[in-house]
Specification:
The chain has 6 helices and 11 strands. The chain is an alpha+beta fold and 222 residues long. It has a domain at 25-134 and 179-220: Pnp Oxidase, Chain A (Roll). The longest helix is centred in the first third of the chain and has 14 residues, at 33-46. Bound molecules: flavin mononucleotide (FMN).
Amino acid sequence: MKIALIKNGLLMLTRPWLWSVRPLCEQDLNPDPFAQFERWFRRARRSLSLEFPEAMCLSTVRPDGFPDGRLVLLKGFDHNGFVFYTNTLSSKGRSLAEQPKAALTMYWEPLQRQVRIRGTVQTVTADEADAYFASRHRSSCIGAWASLQSEPLRERAELEKRVLEFKQRFKGQPVPRPPHWSGYRLKPDEIEFWQLRASRLHDRFVYTKNEQEKWQIQRLYP
Ligand SMILES: Cc1cc2nc3c(=O)[nH]c(=O)nc-3n(C[C@H](O)[C@H](O)[C@H](O)COP(=O)(O)O)c2cc1C
């Protein structure tokens, strides 16, 4: 976010962190990384200038060994992990089936905060996926049937034709969850909180689990 300032009669754009950033200190951190995440996420959701505070880059490993990243939306989290929903036959779904390790990265620009989460991924239960699917707008549910996510699409008209076909197929009845659409839960083994500071001397703290499965906090060089 840039703010306009008048200086020597000139309109200047500057960034608020030049004067407003609060340092992130170890004593400010909650010993529980999920509680710490909740505190930051709640703050991000209050930010009027963030349209998608729940947007996060999901990084996966492709079967050919290359990394891949794309945005998805965080749809829930608790001590069991961070949940997102997608097409299980998509490129990301195929990567996760082969290599169920992934990373999530969030950047809340107005707050100058980044969170990185790394761990292993499992599909959510069918009941959980059904409940979330049922809460979606009907048109999104039709879209989940119509889109062969990540497959080549010859022309847009082909997708629109499929939308009409599925609208017709489910006319007058609830849209069931497609078998190829579900959620994934990433169970973290590492969570990092990053707060921007002046001169690129940022504050970074990473939570990792020790051998007794207890979370430990470590400051990192920026
Ligand atoms: C802000 C934003 C949020 C998105 N959320 C989702 C999502 O929750 N689930 C999803 O499948 N795709 C979502 N997408 C689309 C994905 O980024 C991506 O294009 C799609 O999932 C196909 O990815 P893949 O071919 O790597 O599997 C979102 C895109 C943006 C820009």
